[in-house]
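Team,

Forwarding the record for the chain on the shared tracking sheet. I've put the sequence and predicted structure together so nobody has to dig through attachments.
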Amino acid sequence: MNNFPKPRSVSFRNNKQIQDTNNLPLFESEQTKNDIFKNNVFFYPAKFYQEIVSYVLGKYSKTNEKVLDPFAGSGTVGVVAASKEIKSYLIDINPLLNIYWTVNIRLLFVKDYSNLKKNIYKCLDSIKSDLKKKSHKNASNEFSEDLNYWYDDQIHNELSTIWSIFHKEKSKLKKIERDVVSVALFKTSKYFSYAEHDMPKLFSSKKSRAEIAKILQPNDKLITRNLIVGELRSKVDEILHCSSDFFISNKNVLIPKFYPGRDSSNFDYTKVPPVDLIITSPPYMQAQEYIRTFRLEANWYKISSARIRNAIKKEIPYKKLLKKIIRTNMIDTYRAKIDKDELRNIFDSYFTHTLGALENASSRLKKNGKLCVLIGNPMLGDQIIEIWKVVLEYFTITKKYKLIDIVEDKIAVRKLFKGRKNRNPSGLDKEYLLILEKRY
């Protein structure tokens, strides 16, 4: 494919109204519904921008249709789809998403909200009461030794005791109730750690260490315990307040089907019924440490180190190639310019597994169904890799899909780490949304 179409410029990040370059609205404003997508219950790396999902569903789907996201991340597709009475199927390699998706999606549509709150606060009271007992010794032995690095000893001991009590109490709670407490505990545990609190990526910061040092100045075990318990209750309040503000009492809501901890490139897609749309944003090339971001939470939740390591090995683009690499004209053109074996291996793994996952997922796409892919153009070595062109060429030439639309969205603001030393220190400035139609 030699002549690629010029993408149409669109501003998805205009909060008041999404417009194209001719100042025409792309879809009618749904302020009440759109507000729920601002529900940032937890930090998540590279969240799918909700307005893009809303645009695609508003333009290409109907009520009671089905949508699939094989790289579901924080579950934005599921939230938007549920609000529009569309059934969704969410797949992601992160094993903790069974918890996060419950809080980020199901909590918005719970029926008996008052009873849910009552049970959650009862659990918090039980934890607080149980903490006063003197029988808790060496609770930290229940958890991974990896946690020691991230905490002061005194805080680590208190958190270990609280988590130990919760693991004993959680069987008394319904799933949605224990998941709310779990996420509140995740947030509290990170708040009192040496990890940077305002970034999803896991790393120890001088700022966090200084804040912890201030907390520990009194050097009083009871004060530290009360601070942690108070923060836990505050996090629960925050989650419940956020969800109650955006609560949707829709009798026809279709809760997504979750498949957490699954490898999208090897997933058995026969578990998913035929769908009308696929809306997804695959990981970026050289997207680093996605699973590691959640190692603190996984360790506290007693997810085994072996399971975490296994998930890390399956991350794109660092997953080993066990099959023949995918070749297209664009792939060969870019590959020929890569002079380092390490970068070439990343390149081959990325496109073989990403295109493979999209192709496998598309096996469930109905005839005339839409494959909608959002992707940026990252740097690899010294060159920009225009991923959208590779995806477009592969599906239109090799798989005979029809191009319906391609739009270019400028990223206005993106929170980045200071002192970035990689070859793209300012981050990606644009993303591209491909709309392709299956013709067979």
